[in-house]
């Protein structure tokens, strides 16, 4: 199947569209205009139309979009028809919160294994998820064929553990540590640096004041 | 003071540069080339040079950058010389984790007040932060002159609480709920949707495979 290369900003909005379309379907809405969708997801309608245009003709001019058609389409694009199992490494405060975070609600994702050094927590089940000791990391990731890891370990342990993840065959890491980890080019890293997010918000408030529209924020440069 | 409008992608990288420059200074490094900085922060050196160019001539050709000069400059730009107090609303699992999260380490930010509906937690001090009941939200935010809030409440309470935050004079909201909240145009919202971040990582892995360079990810469109 030929793939269209879409911008990251578009890819990031797809789960948002998918979630709202499900809300709409559950409330009995069968069709929607890009203007109505725009109002709900706070993305301007020109951006929505451009995002959708990457996937060909999804709507009819003057009619809008059929909600169920869009859901079916995004479900396939987002691989929602199959459960994605991920592992969490580091069950500290943030790790615990993520075990309780409902990734599955709109996204078909489940944390199916966790790992921690603490002998008090390793070998237990936390929020329904088994926690394995760190010395079983490589073996369990291989046995369970997990390819994606959420990394919530202390900064000074992050690189050594990342090296083990690479040995275990991990393909993607959602990195919550402030360290920019080194990985081979075939491993994808998504950095989620909460302090930086907050710092950016403060920076923009102090330098520019009010909100810019989403497109202006994400798409400039 | 005249302000240069810089792209959001650049603004997001400033705290990262600042943090690494502090690492470097602490380890005794006095000057650095954009290539060396690039290696450390995993941002290509052309992007670093372009980011720095928004702020005028920060380095000398063939010499590189003076680490202390850069730190002094970014400290001012990022308002690191003054503490920014923020409030956290919703002390559930994620809220608790954020109270323990070290926002202050490289960024001069402190959560100085928290709010929760639960009478068991309201009126206590959690991780050094006083937790007030929700009916004191507006008053305490005003008295403490807090302008930035981290929102970690259940989705179905998010909009009503946001309305109160607006009444209290809040200027910026870091929104961890999956809801796209409605605010007046003078309030800035930074959405941090963890499920979407994870979904985006999975999407890119399944559709494109390995990591693209940071510039390709953030700056296209």
TrEMBL record, chains A, B:
Subcellular localization: Cytoplasm
Q: Residues of the signal sequence?
A: none
Checking InterPro entries in the record gives:
CoA-bd, NAD(P)-bd_dom_sf, Rex_bacilli-type, Rex_DNA-bd_C_dom, Tscrpt_rep_Rex, WH-like_DNA-bd_sf, WH_DNA-bd_sf
Note whether Calcium occurs among the keywords: no
Q: Which residues bind DNA?
A: 16-55
Coiled-coil regions, chain positions = none
Organism domain of life: Bacteria
Q: Which parts of the sequence bind NAD(+)?
A: 90-95
The record's keywords, sorted A to Z, are: Cytoplasm, DNA-binding, NAD, Repressor, Transcription, Transcription regulation
- What sequence ranges are listed for the domain CoA-binding? 79-180
HAMAP family in the cross-refs: Rex
Of which family is this protein a member? Answer: Belongs to the transcriptional regulatory Rex family.
| Assembly behavior | Homodimer.
- Return the NCBIfam families for the record: PRK05472.1-3, PRK05472.1-5, PRK05472.2-3, PRK05472.2-4, PRK05472.2-5
Protein's job = Modulates transcription in response to changes in cellular NADH/NAD(+) redox state.
Q: What is this protein called?
A: Redox-sensing transcriptional repressor Rex
Report which gene this protein is encoded by.
rex
């Amino acid at each position: 199947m030929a793939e269209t290369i879409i911008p990251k900003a578009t890819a990031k909005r797809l789960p948002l569209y998918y979630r709202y379309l499900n809300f709409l379907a559950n409330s009995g809405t069968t069709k929607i205009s890009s203007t109505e969708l725009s109002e709900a997801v706070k993305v301007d309608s020109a951006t929505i139309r451009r995002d959708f245009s990457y996937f060909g003709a999804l709507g009819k001019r003057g009619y809008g979009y059929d909600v169920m058609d869009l859901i079916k389409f995004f479900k396939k694009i987002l691989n929602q028809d199959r459960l994605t199992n991920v592992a969490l490494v580091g069950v500290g405060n943030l790790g615990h919160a993520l075990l309780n975070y409902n990734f599955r609600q709109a996204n078909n994702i489940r944390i199916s294994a966790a790992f921690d050094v603490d002998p008090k927590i390793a070998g237990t089940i936390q929020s329904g998820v088994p926690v394995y000791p760190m010395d079983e990391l490589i073996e369990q990731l291989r046995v369970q064929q997990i390819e994606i890891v959420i990394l919530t370990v202390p900064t000074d342990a992050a690189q050594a553990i990342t090296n083990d993840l690479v040995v275990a065959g991990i393909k993607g890491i959602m990195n919550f540590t402030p360290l920019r980890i080194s990985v081979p080019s075939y491993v994808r890293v998504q950095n989620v640096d909460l302090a930086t997010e907050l710092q950016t918000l403060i920076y923009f408030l102090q330098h520019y004041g009010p909100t810019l529209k989403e497109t202006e924020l994400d798409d400039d440069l």
